[in-house]
Amino acid sequence: MSGLLADAKKIEPEILKIRRWVHQNPELSYHEKETAKLVARELEKLGIEVKTGVGGTGVLGILKGSKPGRVVALRADMDALPVDERSNVPFKSKVPGVMHACGHDTHVAMLLGTAMLLAKHRDELHGTVKFLFQPAEEHGGKGGAEPMIEDGVMENPKVDFVFGLHISNRVPSGTFGLRAGAFMAAPDSFKIKIVGRGGHGSAPQETVDPIFVAAQVINALQGVSSRMIDPVKPFVISVCSIHAGTKDNVIPDEAMLSGTIRTLDDRTRKRAIDKVRGTTNAVCRAFGASAEISFMEDAYPITYNDDRVTGVVFRLLGGIPGMKTREIEPVLGGEDFSRFMEKAPGTFYFLGTHNKAKGCVYPNHSSRFKADEDVLKYGAVSLAKLAMEFSRKKATR
Ligand code: NI
Hints:
CATH class of the largest domain: Alpha Beta
Number of helices: 9
Number of domains: 2
CATH topology of the largest domain: Aminopeptidase
Largest sheet: 8 strands, mixed
CATH superfamily of the largest domain: Zn peptidases
Shape: elongated
Structural class: alpha/beta
CATH architecture of the largest domain: 3-Layer(aba) Sandwich
Bound molecules: nickel (II) ion
Low-confidence stretches: none
Strand content: 25-35%
Distance between the termini: 27 Å
Number of strands: 16
């Protein structure tokens, strides 16, 4: 098993070739057709059982070890973002307006690298490894994990442990960043329609001005943050769009706001949603307007890393030569990997790719996002190692 890293160094050119192809041919959420084809082809080459069209464009690979053991699922997301690439890499996106700005291309390449490593070490492998190549992580709402779960990927055989990683330009290259417990936020988005009564801009007394009311609502919502939520609990509310009006002398009938709230625990999440509703309604009423408030249904849950499993992951990742492991603060981004961890205990972790000397400094989702490719082999090894070790374990729950 100590040979994993040496083997990963040998297949590094293959991992990079896949990564660059996927980078040049990015596909948006639910449209990952060519990426899925490549994934299926590569898995088949390794003699891994493949199911395509899982939860839409998802691909499931199943590798049975030669010894009895547990079932470990490993996940990579495949979708790109509607961003026009402005990075200076020679393998830039060939699709105008679409870019792998979040690094999911590297996730695909790393997990295929992991599959190569595990297929090679099949006679040492216990239990079963399931490879989950999921669509539409960036989509929000339904996402891509949920449709795959509905298609049964966590059952038959039932998954005992699930692992996934994300590259991050917030973490230095050569470092794994993780923590036990709440790791990423529940991203609840909301829409507010403020209904007033329009009229002439010179005669506000004859109207209920929804733009003025919207301004009061925006301010009051920051009061939810500072006065109504426990200050030691992470919480963010951002109003990110406002639309109203057509002309400088017409007070419109309505104003539309939308935004997002982020929380790391269920109590704060429930309270925040409640207070946003209550405050918005009360402010609107005070000025004679009314509000229609809706929260996006099926927002991603909180990404919660199992304490015991994550303790073991810390130790295993720390044993990979050439890499460091660091406990990091939670982040308030959302991840639908959380949905897999509602079905089985596991850990989601970051693989740092921040490298100033190589110009890998722009954040994920930036049009200039660039990842340090030298760390991809370590990402592949990390997932292979977790699969090897956890498939030999007893269940923690
Ligand atoms: Ni991402």
